[in-house]
Amino acid sequence: MRIRRNDSPNVLKSSFLKITILFALVSAIILVSAYGSYLFFANEMLNHEREDLQSLGKMKAERINDLLNNCHSDTNIFIARSSVWKTLMAIDAVEEARRLTKAITNMLQSGKNYRRILVVDMAFQLVAPTISHRFEPIELSALREAVKTRDFVLVDLHRIEDGVIVYGAAHPVFANDDSNGAVVGAVYFERAAQQDLFPLLELESTSSYSLETLIARQEGNDILFLSPLRFKPDASPLSFRMSINNYQTLAGNALVRGQFGLVTGHDYHGNDVIGTTRAVPGTPWVMITKRRIQP
């Protein structure tokens, strides 16, 4: 008996079509599965990124708070020295002035990174140490406020004559070390931001090119960037500013709208970024820790 073969062109086309459809279905299932896996892992990576940014931002904010709190504590301890208030009250003036100069020298050499420690009387004239010093307007304003409010006052970041960027604290001095007594003068503790504040911002940021932490404040109708900028290395601290109306930047949103926490937006360079923003207590600063979103 002769076997009849069913290999007509129509049959071959039908088989090929079925195989093609089957292959397409299998491919589609694989692609959908792969895309689902991609979305899952991408979401996991984004969540991990968010957690890292929040942890890093929190850690740096705490370090800045510790730095400012230590400065506050140091001024409190210093004004309690009898040589400080006795010199200002002209009690055993010569001997107490000598002791005060020694106390200032010891504090400057203590490794706490103070650049200058100055004592002024109620006319805001320098009493100690015996050096020539011209107070910047922001420093004199803080000293006046400290005397008026009888409290610690932050001296905000500013550039002085030699180009160094400094900040510090002003604190009133009370007669007989009695906080309820008369104010007899004030002290000014000055620090160089390049020595302690800016390095705190840069910690852990060198491990990734796209990671950056910075601080900014509002100044009139502008956002003034206070710290070094990774993507504008030619812009020195306190020199680069943007309009306060630029709400697309994380700094603008934080300073104008008070949008704190984990946010997305643009940085000062126009990059799409994800970041965390925090107000720094006791200062007009906002701190931003952000990473560029890869396209």
The low-pLDDT segments are 35-46
What would you call the structural class? alpha+beta
Average pLDDT reading: 85
Strand content: 25-35%
Order of helices and strands: HHHEEHEEEHEEEHEEE
* Terminal Cα span: 70 Å
Give the fraction of residues assigned to helices: 40-55%
| Total of helices | 6
For the biggest β-sheet, the strand order reads 8-7-6-11-10-9
Largest sheet: 6 strands, antiparallel
List the helices and strands and how they pair.
Blueprint: H1 9-79, H2 82-88, H3 93-108, E1 114-120, E2 126-128, H4 137-149, E3 153-159, E4 165-174, E5 183-192, H5 197-202, E6 211-219, E7 222-225, E8 241-243, H6 250-257, E9 261-266, E10 272-279, E11 286-292
Antiparallel strand pairs: 1-2, 1-5, 3-4, 4-5, 6-7, 6-11, 7-8, 9-10, 10-11
Helix pairs in contact: 2-3
Give me some keywords for this one.
single chain; 295 residues; alpha+beta; 5-stranded antiparallel beta sheet
Explain what the structure shows.
With 295 residues, this protein is of the alpha+beta class. The chain is built from six helices and eleven strands. The strands form two sheets. A six-stranded antiparallel β-sheet has the order 8-7-6-11-10-9. The protein has a five-stranded antiparallel β-sheet with strand order 2-1-5-4-3, with helices on both faces. The chain starts with 8 loop residues before the first helix and ends with a strand.
Short structural summary:
The protein has helices at 9-79, 82-88, 93-108, 137-149, 197-202, 250-257, and strands at 114-120, 126-128, 153-159, 165-174, 183-192, 211-219, 222-225, 241-243, 261-266, 272-279, 286-292. With 295 residues, the chain is of the alpha+beta class.
